[in-house]
From TrEMBL, chain A:
<dbReference type="Pfam" id="PF00248">
    <property type="entry name" value="Aldo_ket_red"/>
</dbReference>
<keyword id="KW-0521">NADP</keyword>
<comment type="similarity">
    <text>Belongs to the aldo/keto reductase family.</text>
</comment>
<keyword id="KW-0560">Oxidoreductase</keyword>
<dbReference type="InterPro" id="IPR018170">
    <property type="entry name" value="Aldo/ket_reductase_CS"/>
</dbReference>
<feature type="domain" description="NADP-dependent oxidoreductase">
    <location>
        <begin position="30"/>
        <end position="266"/>
    </location>
</feature>
<protein>
    <submittedName>
        <fullName>Aldo/keto reductase</fullName>
    </submittedName>
</protein>
<dbReference type="InterPro" id="IPR023210">
    <property type="entry name" value="NADP_OxRdtase_dom"/>
</dbReference>
<dbReference type="InterPro" id="IPR020471">
    <property type="entry name" value="AKR"/>
</dbReference>
TrEMBL record, chain B:
<feature type="domain" description="Peptidase M24">
    <location>
        <begin position="124"/>
        <end position="322"/>
    </location>
</feature>
<dbReference type="InterPro" id="IPR000994">
    <property type="entry name" value="Pept_M24"/>
</dbReference>
<dbReference type="InterPro" id="IPR036005">
    <property type="entry name" value="Creatinase/aminopeptidase-like"/>
</dbReference>
<dbReference type="InterPro" id="IPR050659">
    <property type="entry name" value="Peptidase_M24B"/>
</dbReference>
<protein>
    <recommendedName>
        <fullName>Peptidase M24 domain-containing protein</fullName>
    </recommendedName>
</protein>
<dbReference type="Pfam" id="PF00557">
    <property type="entry name" value="Peptidase_M24"/>
</dbReference>
<dbReference type="InterPro" id="IPR029149">
    <property type="entry name" value="Creatin/AminoP/Spt16_N"/>
</dbReference>
Length: 273, 340
């Protein structure tokens, strides 16, 4: 991952992208947790229709088949959709079986990104990582990464295999912002990806509200735009079309350096520096 | 002495009376916490007497003299009285009460406590979903040195966030009492309350939701398992799978117990099948039960294999008997989970 934005195909919507091993990864993705069944299928279809080109699912979500139904039904070509899924930590030793089940449920010959969902037992999960790399070599996945990993576990994977994860998906928002961690990911070439970007954020914080008011946007938009400014991928979820469109449009909000610095300062980690 | 005698209506009583009629019983004595709780909620007492004529009486003990007096007071002087002894013995005369005898009605009670209407099935599905949420909250965060109180806190937060209630009901408990936690953990260092790499962590989850209890158990080890632990895990997983595969509508439920025993062989392993109304506080299915699996039954299945050097692999799941077999509700892994 070199951090430079590359364009998606014209039909792929307005979201900025990162280059992930030669594959354009949209920086705004559609998260599917906790939707299931028809609701998940309809939501993914709607998301694709409004321009999302990254769909984020996981074995744990128990909705891969529903997501797969949407991928089968949409007019958007598979090659234009970036599909991320994740292996839960309780599948150590069963990596290939887990991937095969994911592919079958999704109706895909490959996924674009496969993540270890949590460090198994708090360990790096080196044995699993080797299986992930093997799956990548065999073309079953385009890129491999991790989720909820601290720096030391990422370094442990690299120490054992010489390969850093392409992505680390973590809970990340203004309340979680840790410039040291972000810099550590950047230096290792690991794309930081944010799940639950609003969970730890005080949406009534006066700093965020003032920036939103000045830009005539919502605080939610400001948080998403702040992530994109930092080249952090964001996964957002909503079953409502209007909200989906609004989230995607946040990519068009350009924050000033002053605004970004003000949002940076909202977290405890940033405040402690 | 009887503490109270009341006449109660309601679907549960109506169903039980219909079962008594069908079985040719004139009365039923419920002694298990699950059986009592099913009829009277959390009402304390040693036994509940239910007659086909409509009497519901709470007694301080199922003693023959007291029982005879209670039956006479209810106008019952002849016939068979069902009990939850689990015994396969033939009918026994009730001392001091000529014309009355005691017979085992464990299957009758089990059948009632395992049966559910569609609304209750939805509640159990929701409770099982909460169990899966709790499972994830545990499994994703286990690590060596973790304090089990942190583990419980994770489950508590996650389950409540998902709409569950703060409370528990241990299906295998002896008292059937409710408590204030959602997960029972075994396998930690008792001196520090922290998880170790060597001891398999066993946890039972039992969140409450809309009057139904979710129920599942899992075992994880925070290292690559050694030979004996792996063997116990493989045995427990294979025998549990056999048990579940044997739960087919129209077949005796005991086929599940027999299948487990066949696969476990000489290994030190145990299993039980419980009715989920009242959980394991009701009598588990008797080994010699003749009860047949019927669609709509909700059962708790709990299995364990001991590790000779210490510890155990414990698994549990809530299953619904369908038209074709047994469908797992929580869908937690029924195998030893390795985290390393």
């Amino acid at each position: 991952m070199d951090g430079n934005a590359t364009p998606l195909p014209e039909a792929a919507g307005p979201a900025p992208t990162a280059d992930l091993n030669g594959r354009a990864m949209p920086l705004v993705g559609f998260g599917t947790h906790p939707m299931r069944g028809d609701q998940a299928t309809e939501a993914v279809l709607t998301a694709l229709s409004v321009g999302y080109r990254l769909v984020d699912t996981a074995t744990r979500y128990r909705n891969e088949a529903a997501v797969g139904a949407a991928l089968a039904a949409t007019e958007v070509p598979r090659a234009d959709v970036f599909v991320t899924t994740k292996m839960p930590p309780d599948q150590v030793g069963r990596e290939r079986l887990t991937l095969e089940r994911s592919l079958a449920a999704l109706g895909c010959g490959y996924v674009d990104l496969w993540l270890i969902h949590w460090p198994p037992g708090g360990y790096p999960g080196v044995a699993s990582w080797r299986e992930f790399l093997r799956a990548r070599e065999e073309g079953l996945v385009r890129a491999v990464g991790v989720s909820n990993y601290p720096v030391e576990l990422i370094d442990a994977l690299h120490a054992e295999t010489g390969v850093y994860p392409a992505v680390n998906q973590v809970q990340w928002g203004p309340g979680d912002y840790d410039p040291t961690f972000a810099e550590a990911m950047r230096r290792r070439g690991v794309l930081l990806s944010a799940h639950s970007p609003l969970r730890s954020t005080d949406l009534d914080h006066p700093v965020l509200m003032e920036i939103a008011r000045r830009n005539k946007r919502s605080v939610r938009d400001v948080v998403l735009a702040w992530n994109l400014h930092h080249r952090v991928a964001v996964t957002v979820k909503s079953a409502r079309r209007e909200r989906m469109e609004q989230n995607l449009a946040a990519a068009g909000l350009a924050l000033t350096a002053t605004d970004v610095e003000a949002v940076d300062g909202l977290s405890a980690a940033a405040g402690a520096r | 002495m009887a503490k109270a005698t009341t006449r109660k209506a309601g679907a549960r009583l109506d169903r039980l009376r219909a079962r008594l009629d069908a079985a040719g019983l004139t009365a039923l004595l419920l002694t298990s916490p699950g059986g009592r709780g099913y009829i009277l909620g959390a009402e304390p007492g040693s036994a509940v007497l239910l007659t086909t004529e409509g009497t519901v009486a709470v007694t301080s003990g199922p003693y023959p003299g007291e029982l005879g007096a209670l039956l006479r007071a209810a106008g019952v002087t002849r016939g068979s009285v069902g009990t939850e002894t689990g015994s396969r013995e033939p009918a026994l005369p009730l001392p001091g009460s000529p014309g009355l005898s005691l017979v085992d009605a464990g299957d009758l009670v089990f059948a009632e406590l395992a049966s559910h209407d569609p609304a209750e099935l939805r509640a159990f599905a929701a409770a099982a979903e909460l169990t899966a949420v709790g499972y994830t909250a545990v499994m994703d965060h286990l690590h060596v040195g973790m304090d089990v109180r942190e583990l419980s806190g994770n489950v508590d937060r996650s389950v409540r966030r998902a709409g569950g209630l703060l409370g528990w009901y241990d299906p295998c408990g002896a008292t059937g009492a409710a408590g204030s936690d959602l997960v029972t953990v075994r396998g930690h260092d008792p001196a520090t309350a922290r998880l170790t790499a060597a001891d398999p962590v066993r946890y039972v989850l039992h969140p409450l939701c809309d009057g139904a209890v979710g129920y599942a158990a899992a075992t994880a080890v925070l290292s690559r398992p050694d030979g004996p632990l792996r063997t116990a895990g493989d045995t427990c997983a294979a025998a549990t799978a056999a048990l579940l595969a044997a739960l087919r509508p129209g077949d005796p439920l005991r086929d599940g117990l027999d299948a487990f025993a066949r696969v476990a062989g000489e290994a030190p392993a145990t299993c039980r099948i419980m009715a989920m109304h009242g959980g394991g506080a009701s009598l588990p299915l008797a080994c010699g039960s003749d009860l047949v699996a019927e669609p709509g039954m909700v059962l708790g299945v709990r299995t364990a294999a001991q590790v000779p050097e210490g510890g155990a692999v414990e698994l549990a799941e809530t299953v619904v008997v369908t038209g074709s077999g047994a469908r797992a509700q929580a869908r937690t892994p029924l195998r030893l989970v390795e985290l390393h």
